[in-house]
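Teaching note: in complex prediction, the entire set of molecules is handled at once rather than each chain in isolation. The prompt given to students was simply: 'Predict the structure of this complex.' The entities are:
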Amino acid sequence: MEHDASNMVKVTMPIPEPRSWEFPAGKRVGDVLRELQLNPEAVIVVAGDTLLTADRRLEAGQDIEILPVISGGSERAEEADEVHQV
Amino acid sequence: MKCIKCKQTAVLELRRHNSAFCRDHFFEYFERQVQRTISEFRMFGRNDRILVAVSGGKDSLVLWDCLLRSGYRAHGLYIGLGIPGYSDRSAEKVRAFARSRHATLREVSVGAEFGFDIPTAGRRLRRPACSPCGLAKRYIFNREALQGGYDVVATGHNLDDEAAVLLGNVLHWNTDYLGRQFPVLEAHEDGLVRKVKPLVRVTERETAAYAVLRRIDYIVEECPMAVGARSHLYKEVLNRLEQESPGTKHQLLFGFFERGRQRFQEDRDLDLQPCSECGQPTTAGVCAFCRTRRRLVSVTT
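The expected output is the structure of the full assembly:
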């Protein structure tokens, strides 16, 4: 199925390495995440200065960014041993 | 999807609470969760001086932002770890945040003060860089808090961080660690400052959402030293469980606090004395940080 280029929405993800895709306007955010095999618990979806829930539909002209939220190093796995450095 | 409070368009769904919130009601929810944690665990009061350990990442900046908004006396502490590129970019995020809020920021550079950076330390010690990094940070948190006369050190560990630590400790049956994992680490009269984790009730996704909606400019890129860290795998596994069964992470961690932790607790009376080299408290003659610093020097020379 072909899509009108002006009706496509650019979706980017900055990490772990910058990636971008195009999806047709009207597609639901939840379907985008499913297609990209991203767990909705591990990302937020940013449109300008707001966030989109899974039921929202992409709109032509939007810039969408998917931000992964997992952070922290293996040091944190030792954090319970926090009786300082005695 | 509508906000459950005002029926405006929701910006975030919280399946674990069977809720969705608009921007303003999400702020209200989030700040209430943080305040509830501070009160329930008696972390600190309005008159306490709080030193917030800030890395430039979302969690620590969100914590600092929340505390300042709530009127707490919260100063920041940034530690320069000497990670090429990443440390400079994260320091700039922290400084910009402090400037924009007219907040007090303390800075310590590991390289300038101790003569090594974290990537080099990891290589020379033949250990993951996160290991000397954690040691240096804990050492500096305590020292700076003591020197600055702070009542408590606050870190940005969230529900995902703590649930991942718990999972790791259970998988390896680290019973010592299990007995000590808690959102408050009490002070010791011989020079250990109280440490608290006020974000332990909110998820990593919620802190990221709060940061974006509050326009807190944080360092999005991952620490290059932490790529492939085991804790990331634990978080992914927990998020898969959370997706299938919302509330799993909270049940795991808070269930442990309520019903599991006491089974592993031991009364340990720490016999602390000043480190013969730096004066910080230790159970040995020379503290772990100074021992590590010695090893680094001996490897270099």
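Point out the following to students. Chain B touches chain A through 74 residues (CB under 8 Å). Chain B has twelve helices and ten strands.
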